[in-house]
Amino acid sequence: MSKPRPTHSIESLNVYWRELYQNRPMLAAENLPGLELNAALNKPAFVREKNWVPSPASGVQRILLERQGGELTKRATSLVAYQANSRFNAHTHPLGEEFLVLAGVFSDEYGDYPAGTYVRNPPASSHSPFTKQGCLILVKLQQMPVDDCQRIVTNALQQASGEQMLFNDYEKVSMLTSSHEPVHSQTQEGLVLQGSAQVAGQTLQVGDWFRYSNEQAITLAPNSLVFSKREHLS
Predict the structure, then answer these.
(1) ∠100-105-107 over CA atoms, to 5°?
(2) Of 54, 71, 148, 212, whose CB count within 10 A is highest?
């Protein structure tokens, strides 16, 4: 009888991300002014520094990866930390939201999402997010076409090798492991969750985020894991 394949463990995923969460500063609630950060989608972007900024909600801080606008943003990708028993006011996602839980348990009125959960909330969806124990999530806002009506909730750590597809339609969202062949794509974005990766001639370590819109390849080092999006930039 063959042995079941191991999967990426929540414990190993959480090592870096729990430390990032635990070492964050406690910032007073504050609205973010309008700004442009890595907003030119036709230019490569890399974020290695972890600079925390406040949010309008008490106990919620963010690391901005890309952004167009203030709190009523046109487009945003961020790492968001919620301290225990914090929440965000009810809000609507005009052009959708997707998130990947990196540590802790994120919740809303529809359920609880432990570390390793990937969720897509389609355009015009709304919710009231909160957490009981605290959490850290990767969030992408305002980046879906209006006719996307699919809601997806899935475990992103089910597959131990190769590529685990999380969404495969007008864009491809997946978890890449080091056993996968180098991935070539005209447009690609990713967050290094474990290990390291070679992207566009640069070595990215765990916690680094990247985005490019010209033909490049991403190659993962052994025992590495990357959250990947492809064919999604326009």
Answers:
(1) 85
(2) 212
